Amino acid sequence: MKKQRTKRAIKSDINIIPFLDILLVLLIIFIIIPSKLIQSFEVNLPNSEVATNIINNEKLIMTIEILGMGLYNLIINNKHIKQICLNQISSEISHQIYITPNITCLIAASKAVAYDEIIKVLSLLSNIGVHSIGMITNPTT
């Protein structure tokens, strides 16, 4: 018996396994890289060339001035409350949110203030339920 040689025909189908491997690698790259970029950026808060005016759109504006370690001023619609602690700020802002839920809190601090103090204020505002928070900067001219 003679063995018949069968010619193998060339398949023009896509091999799906290597294609899926490449797609999964690309997916992982696009998931990991942006999170690394977001977590590693520099912040220079005190200077800004472009300032957004948010005061005209809101009903109540509250400004928290960070003076130093544990010392703050609170300004509510041009009413100044000087040298108070975080607990007093918390109770005052909670009271204002109860009266007017649509408020904006602005944070003002100099370059010399420790970043930890700013984070304490941001955490406090987040825990209270303030959704609109801004940073006051000096516009450069």
Most strands sheet: 5 strands, mixed
The gyration radius over C-alpha positions equals 28 Å
Q: What percent of residues are in strands?
A: 15-25%
- What separation lies between the terminal Cα atoms? 96 Å
Polypeptide structure, described:
The chain has 141 residues and is an alpha/beta fold. It has helices at 16-39, 86-99, 115-128, and strands spanning 47-48, 60-68, 71-76, 79-84, 103-109, 133-135, 138-139. The strands form 2 sheets. It has a 5-stranded mixed beta sheet, covered by helices on one side. Strands 1-7 form a two-stranded parallel sheet. The N and C termini lie far apart (96 Å).
Q: What are the salient characteristics of this protein?
A:
141 residues, five-stranded mixed β-sheet, alpha/beta
